Amino acid sequence: MPNLLIFILLITFVALLFRIEFFFYLLYFFFGMYILSRLWGQHALDNVIFERECDMRAFIGDRLPVKIRIQNRGFLPLPWLRVHDSLPLGIKSPNFYHCVISLLPFEKKVLEYELNCRRRGYYPLGPLIVRGGDLFGLRNSEKRLEAPDALWVYPKIVPLSKLELEAKVPFGYVRTKERIFEDPSRLVGVRDYQSGDSTRHIHWKATAATGTLQVKRFEPAISIESQIFLNLNRDEYTYTRATPASETAIVTAASIASYLIEKRQTVGLSCNGKDPLAEEAIKITVPPRKGEAHRMHILDVLARAELSEHLSFADLLHQDRLQLTWGSTAIIISGHADDALFDNMLLMKRSGFHVMLILVDSQTPFALVKQRAEDVGVTAHQVWQERDLDVWR
Amino acid sequence: MSGDETITQKTLGDGATATSDKGTSSIKTSRDWSRIALEEIIRPLAISAMLTCIVISLNQLIGSVASEWPGGILSVLTLLVCLESIHAKQLLTRLELDSRERWRFRFVEWVFILLVVRFGVYIKYGAAQLAADVARWSMDVGAFFDIGFIANGMLMAIFWSLALALSSAMQELEASPTEKRPRVTDPHHYLYSTMPRHGRIDRYARLKRITGIFTAGGMVLLILAGLARVDVRNLMAFDHSYSSGVLLNVLAYFLIGFLLIGQARYTILRAHWEIEGIPVMEGIGKRWVLLALAFLFLIGLVSAVLPVGYSVGMVDTLSTVLQWTLYVLTQIAFGLLFLISSLLALLIGFMTGTPTETQPSAAPVARPQAPPAVSGRPMPWWPLVRSLAFWTVLIGIIGYSIFHFADYRWSLLKKLSLSGFFRWLLGLWQGIRSGTQKATAEIRRAIANRLPSRESRTRRRPWRYISLRGLPLRERIRYFYLSTLRRSAKQNLGRPPSATPWEYQSILAKEIPEIAEQFDELTQAFIEARYSEHPITEEKASRVKNAWRGARKTLGLYRRRKRNEPTQTEEENT
Hints:
Chain A is built from eight helices and 19 strands. Chain A is of the alpha/beta class. Chain A starts with a helix and ends in an 11-residue tail after the last strand. The chains are: A alpha/beta, B mainly alpha. Chains A and B meet through helix 1, helix 2, strand 4, strand 5 and strand 6 of A and strand 1, helix 10, helix 12, helix 13 and helix 15 of B.
């Protein structure tokens, strides 16, 4: 009603001219309508509170229900309220949720929709925008949900049980065939004393019972301290397979990390991908730790990791291998193996690390790569798709 | 939160959801009965009743001077004509008649309306008058079209048009199937994407038209109602008393008008939601009407308790307010003086031991008189306060309206004040003048500098068109590239006008593989020199020159080879 103010002035003039009381009432009525409508439109959303409620962690394939709770805590009714929630295309198609509702004073409403976690990733949700206005279109107002929400969709974790890793850090939890790594805390039996056995390992009770010297037999065990090196440099993948191959690499890394932490081992992660929460950083490094919290930390990082072009994999290996402790295992997950990678692996072997290579997008025949890896003392595996991880199940 | 109403996609209004799923054709089918009733019955009745309210006041005015005027009949006829106008429009939309049939339809309609208007008034005048008039018309056919009939006919035509305009505008606010975006695979998508504004109707222009008719009609109604109540002679002399009481037709007009505008606003929003495929909660339309009624009732209630009469004039009221203010200030000053003098008298009494006699105070200031009553009635205290409240409210309303009106419309003018605008114009003129002078001087100087050097260059090397060494490095690289293009064009390998340098590079490399390396360097250097601001070094220019020489040589070889090819073929043939 753009000309309402002119009309109010004209009514004033007519009312003063004719001195008809009813015209003054009309004048008040028009003016009141104009002012109150504007105030209504302006302050309609002042007492409206709204929040988005959903789980912020999910795995691929989950369907997450999202609830938007809207409550009018004021006396002003809201004739219309347009709710618009912007969402990433990876989890909602079309990439928004919108609807129109109406709220009476102190009325609450819950809006529901679903997110389809089709792809791993870090998905900022929102902004959630609510628009409302008065009945006569004199004023509209808008309110946004200030608190940003984000959804982590974790990579798929393939349960592994037959993954064998070599390591040389003694006193761990994983049994090994190499007797050099006997753990004195794991007593498995006794045997006859032989020349050269340490007197500290004599089992005196058994000796007394049998009458001959018996020494304790310990279960050999190692501690696998591992660092997963994950290549997420887009240029080092085949152009057409960059996305599926890198996803397979991430699934492999998540599965191995999960397996090792289940085995109560320490595991870390080095990755040359991009973390959307750390725009400036060119690599992601998670130092080796153990425990459930650490597993969630690694999964969080793997959920967020994206392909990048900033740091080559060779540079990443060169920088982060210096942080490894002697005897630990480097699990290298890469698109393909080039000379620089072999050079780095050789250096690692010479420095006393165990190296395991997993290729997810080999551009050269894998048999050749495997042969070359064996030449430098590295075990090579090929994981072309998630199904290939079944060999370690 | 057990009391919360949970709304999922399924429980939202089916209208918009259905349209978004089923496409454009389902907009019509999604109309429910309440909507049909609104469009077919309630809205036409509301528009007709609103317009009839104006005619009632007009008839009251005419009736006050001509007692025989058939006002009641004409009011009813206006209502019927307005309804007919809206109904005829809906009928025409449904029948989809061609142009000729539409004209016939309108002709028949108007003949009927005019006959009803002509003979309808005899309900009041009676059968005897009709018989007399029929006899008169048989004597003189022209008497059929007397001034009263023509005036009534014109009145009906005006209200028929207004009803049609309002109804059409309200109808156009609805979402139409053509506005909905078809799927990309739909054959209509191209049409939709190339239509101006994508076929969208400017709904706010329609709303403006509706409010324009409403406010203009309202103003006419107020003036007519005012004139019907007040004697014009008294009005001219501004010597008329108050009139009170509710004017029902005026009240009805504005009430219906506001409800219609509220409805129009809702229709616009609903149309936008439908076009965008936004699901809408059920029952918003009903809530809208109820809230609008409650809102208007509340404002009416507040307005009813505000003072509407004033028993004192404006200037007198101001004068009284001023006098009272001065009176209060004087009383305060006297009070303070009295306190100080009493204290001083007490002190002097203590010091001298004899009480000081205080002088009798001056005569008290007379209270201001209340302003004379406008109507000459006695002036009690309460009406004065009501008058003051009335004027305060009225001045507040007028001040607010004028201020905001100016604020909305003239904000641009406020920014560019008149003096500033003239200063800007003057500055512009001076800038243009000085700029022109400077540019002319510059051109003269440049010509004067260039001419001798050009002459000397031409004198030194009269046999060369271009001196490569004299060219800037950037220009030199451009020359190398363009020269190669010219040479390749001579071999029928010219650059197609649509090809970019890189596209042409690949074309030429395919035709003459030997030239690929040199021309690649030339192209790269040309693009850098032509489109970037990178500095060009002498070394780079010499590298490009070598490439250019190589390319020239290769092109020469290609030319010779091409010339020999037919000879070789002929030899082979022989």
